[in-house]
């Protein structure tokens, strides 16, 4: 039997896919939504509405005025209650549009069925994706219209659709592939045409054979295939996925288009199809609400701007002893200090865990486990030492900005050193330094 494709290094955490067999449920929107104007990589959108304005479902309420930005749309119809700062899942205040839901879901005129989306030109596909405010739904939230427009000297030959969902606990992408395979495949075909790629590869971990079979039923006549990869974390990281499927290595500091590849998440592919078929902007997404401290774990389709407290209450609430709420997965997600934060475009899940105690850090014993498991082939302990000493040039030279923050190093560290925390601190500082130099 042929060995399953994969990438070097990585780890094998417990999968804990508690909701893999639970179909997606539509969560009715709450009485009030809080829609941040920054839910993506890049600059925030500029507000187009003010307090007292009436808005329709799908209406553009925030306009992207920078290249790296994304439009923002109303996820309910109703009246604007405020345009004010709210707490972003990242922990800082951002400007948001607060809407009182009228419960009617009155659609805006732009949301209408289009005839034969597969006949659209590449430019028309990109235009509709941009107007829909679509971003990468795998976590990075990079504006999709930008990804669909690589430099002219970087031709794309392969589109990879990422269905790995390698984070423990999360299963929403799995359910999308089981329940909406045709929409995902058609959205992928639109993305392929938009960038002029010659083929599509759907990359899934081998713990999802049912999803692979579901997708294969809709590939007839398309230059596409489904490949099952070894289940290992972080198989779904872009550079790891490209290496596993194609054997190509994205150069240090480079991007997938440097090796002729574009990677999109399965949820993004579905969003592309919805935008091109019916003009539907990105106003909802699939998430998993799970963990040992959630009473009724579920997979949900949730409107953007829905408060975390409302989402959790729809799953029966928290069990006694819950104290750690993570948006995203347990490896790369962010712990939350408040249940008032909203679901945003980049929210892949909500994981509730038992009381977590930070274990005491011990001195590094130079065991090398962090190096052995790092998929980016970095030396995390050395990078952290430079960051702690504020030796920024050395930290960058040793690859701080190449870290994907997957957490493999910290997971495997017997001394419980908070390596990812320190590298995140260093990366943020290095990015600020670069912005100052380029200003």
Question: How would you classify the helix and strand content by structural class?
Answer: alpha/beta
Q: Tell me the major beta sheet.
A: 6 strands, mixed
SS element count, helices? 13
**SSE order, as H and E?**
EEEEEEEEHHEHHEHEHEHEEHEEEHHHHH
Question: Explain this structure to me?
Answer:
There is one protein chain. With 439 residues, the chain is α/β, with parallel strands linked by helices. The protein folds into two domains: 1-26 and 107-357, Rossmann fold, CATH 3.40.50.11540; 369-438, no CATH class. It is 27% helix and 20% strand. The strands form four sheets. It has a six-stranded mixed sheet with strand order 1-14-13-17-15-16. Strands 2-8-7-4 form a four-stranded antiparallel sheet, with no helix packed on it. A four-stranded parallel sheet has the order 11-10-9-12, with helices on both faces. Helix 1 packs across helix 4 (181-195), helix 3 packs parallel to helix 5 and helix 4 (181-195) crosses helix 7. The protein is globular.
């Amino acid at each position: 039997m042929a060995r399953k494709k994969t990438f070097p290094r990585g780890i094998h955490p417990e999968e804990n896919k508690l909701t893999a067999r639970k179909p997606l449920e539509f969560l009715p929107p709450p009485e009030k939504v809080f829609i941040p104007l920054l839910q993506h990589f890049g600059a925030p959108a500029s507000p187009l509405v003010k307090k007292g304005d009436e808005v329709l479902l799908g209406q553009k309420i925030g306009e992207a005025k920078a290249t790296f930005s994304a439009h923002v749309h109303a996820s309910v119809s109703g009246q604007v209650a405020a345009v004010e700062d709210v707490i972003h899942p990242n922990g800082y205040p951002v400007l948001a549009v607060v809407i009182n839901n009228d419960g009617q879901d009155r659609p805006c005129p732009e949301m209408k069925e289009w005839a034969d989306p597969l006949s659209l030109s590449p430019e028309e596909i990109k235009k509709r994706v941009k107007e829909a405010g679509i971003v990468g739904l795998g976590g990075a939230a990079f504006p999709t219209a930008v990804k669909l427009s690589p430099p002219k000297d970087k031709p794309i030959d392969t589109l990879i659709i990422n269905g790995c969902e390698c984070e423990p606990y999360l299963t929403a992408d799995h359910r999308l592939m089981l329940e909406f395979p045709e929409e995902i495949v058609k959205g992928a075909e639109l993305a392929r045409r938009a960038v002029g790629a010659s083929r599509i590869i759907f990359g899934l971990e081998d713990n999802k054979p049912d999803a692979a079979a579901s997708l294969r039923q809709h590939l007839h006549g398309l230059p596409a295939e489904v490949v099952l990869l070894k289940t290992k974390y972080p198989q779904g990281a872009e550079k790891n996925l490209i290496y596993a499927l194609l054997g190509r290595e994205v150069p240090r500091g480079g991007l997938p288009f440097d090796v002729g590849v574009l990677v999109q998440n399965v949820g993004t592919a579905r969003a592309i199809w919805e935008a091109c078929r019916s003009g539907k902007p990105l106003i909802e997404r699939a998430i998993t609400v799970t963990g040992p401290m959630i009473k009724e774990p579920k997979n949900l389709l949730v409107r953007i701007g829905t408060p975390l407290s409302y989402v959790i209450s729809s799953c029966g609430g928290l069990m006694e002893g819950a104290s750690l709420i993570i948006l995203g997965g347990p490896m790369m997600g962010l712990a939350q200090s408040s249940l008032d934060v909203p679901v945003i475009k980049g929210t892949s899940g909500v994981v509730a865990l038992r009381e977590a105690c930070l274990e005491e850090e011990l001195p590094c014993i130079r065991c090398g486990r962090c190096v052995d498991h790092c998929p980016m082939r970095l030396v995390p302990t050395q990078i952290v030492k430079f960051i702690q000493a504020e030796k920024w040039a050395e930290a960058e030279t040793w690859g701080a900005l190449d870290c994907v923050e997957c957490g493999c190093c910290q997971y495997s560290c017997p001394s419980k050193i908070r390596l990812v925390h320190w590298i995140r601190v260093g990366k943020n500082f290095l990015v600020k330094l670069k912005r100052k130099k380029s200003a």
